[in-house]
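Researcher: Next sequence.
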Amino acid sequence: MPELTISLTQKGDTATEGKIGKHSVIIDRPLDKGGNDLGPMGGQYLIASIAGCFSSTFFAAAKS
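Model: Next structure:
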């Protein structure tokens, strides 16, 4: 299994940049919640990641 590296860096008042391997994402809050709306909220990424994990596993199983 390849090594998994994740790093987080604060970007401004409310945003965080997450680097996962060679990819990066910005995590922030909407304007009405005190953020700068530079990216989705962490909970939104969490839901998307669970859905993505499920669907990629489903597609791999269907392919085999």
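Model: The two ends are 20 Å apart (CA to CA). The first strand starts at residue 6 and ends at 11.
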